[in-house]
Amino acid sequence: MTPGARISAAIAVIDRVASGEPAEKALTNWARGARYAGSKDRAAVRDHVFDVLRRWRSTAASGAAETGRGRMIGLLRQDGPPPESLFDGQGHAPAPLSEAERAAGGTQDGAAARDMPDWLWPQFARDLGPRADPVAQALRHRAPVFVRVNTLRADVEGARAALAEEGIEARPASLSPDALEIIAGARSIARGAAFAGGLVEMQDAASQAVVDALPLVPGMRVLDYCAGGGGKALAMAARLGGGPVAVHDADPARMRDVPARATRAGADLRIVDHPRRDWDLVLCDVPCSGSGAWRRAPEGKWRLTQGALDALCRTQADILDRAAPLVAPGGVLAYATCSVLACENMQAVERFIAGHPGWTLRDSRSFLPGPEGDGLFLAVLAHTG
Ligand SMILES: C[S@@+](CC[C@H](N)C(=O)[O-])C[C@H]1O[C@@H](n2cnc3c(N)ncnc32)[C@H](O)[C@@H]1O
């Protein structure tokens, strides 16, 4: 496909997303009907679509239309090359810009310029203070790619060398000693031998740093209460010399890949349907707005409403209520989100402590989205009663 044809494809997918179809589904549907598209074409179309999703408001303003075409014109106006060079009507490229399209295109301020929802921006600005603007800007751009070196299978230099043999270039990441940032070849990782052999796992560097900050000691009885796909459980198992780590999720289907991932990693993860007490460490990596990771999942930014955020906060409180009694005397309760919003982070912890005498905050960490990783929050609580 030519660069122009890729833009035409992205325009069609963006229009489907605008009419309510999830982006992944719209991309899959497009790819099914586009057998001529190779893997590089599919990757390029996907990049255009996700670039626009991250900047849904500002690209519409720059392109002066809330359509796929307008948004792609706007994206090119922001990032280049000039839209006139690709909208030339040749082959499958989009039609040339009309006089009106050439003349249109504006700038914005406030929430729109930061590609934030109007309702959320005041809260975001209050919560993050002087960091609000750089964080909002970071969320408008692609996230760096990181892997976690699985120390059960390799050391960092060994994993780096194995990746290099596959043409994947990596360098040490600052947030975690086991994290590598992928500089080139990121799209090949999941198909490669280093990944298949369990030497590396895809995991954001801040997610790795959260697990690094947990007070884990081999021999501890550890429960991952919201295990999902098991990313943090695998990292915890590596810290414990292989495990075991008990994994639980209210939706067991979310853990369907856990056995295969554990086998690949050489980790001992044990699914527990109805966890009972006495765990030395219970991790609650709760469902959240995902605001710290909106670079990776930008649809979440536009889907979130005040009502949905309030409901998430109630779920987070409920999970802490259920998990706290599972902690053994002297054990710890760890609470993690991939959010930067205070109501899901420190305020949630303060509400829990206020309602649960004997629990105190032992440690907390906040990571903001940027070149080093995503935005995450961790609180480690101990029971002193
Ligand atoms: C942020 S995801 C977990 C990600 C996972 N820890 C990882 O690192 O890959 C949150 C998980 O919490 C689960 N969940 C939601 N409500 C829950 C509840 N009441 N009890 C336990 N798990 C719950 C969801 O099904 C979801 O899989």
Automatic annotation (TrEMBL):
The keyword DNA repair does not apply. Residues 77-112 are annotated as: Disordered. It comes from the Bacteria. GO terms for biological process: RNA methylation. Residues 135-385 form the SAM-dependent MTase RsmB/NOP-type domain. The keyword Transcription regulation does not apply. The active site is at C338 (nucleophile). Keywords: Methyltransferase, RNA-binding, S-adenosyl-L-methionine, Transferase. Gene3D superfamilies: Sun protein, domain 3 (3.30.70.1170), Vaccinia Virus protein VP39 (3.40.50.150). PROSITE patterns: SAM_MT_RSMB_NOP (PS51686). One of its GO terms (molecular function) is RNA methyltransferase activity. S-adenosyl-L-methionine binds at D249, D273, D285. InterPro entries: MeTrfase_RsmB-F_NOP2_cat, MeTrfase_RsmB-F_NOP2_dom, RCMT, RsmB-like_ferredoxin, SAM-dependent_MTases_sf. Belongs to the class I-like SAM-binding methyltransferase superfamily. RsmB/NOP family. This is 16S rRNA (Cytosine967-C5)-methyltransferase. It comes from Citreimonas salinaria. The lineage of its organism: Bacteria, Pseudomonadati, Pseudomonadota, Alphaproteobacteria, Rhodobacterales.
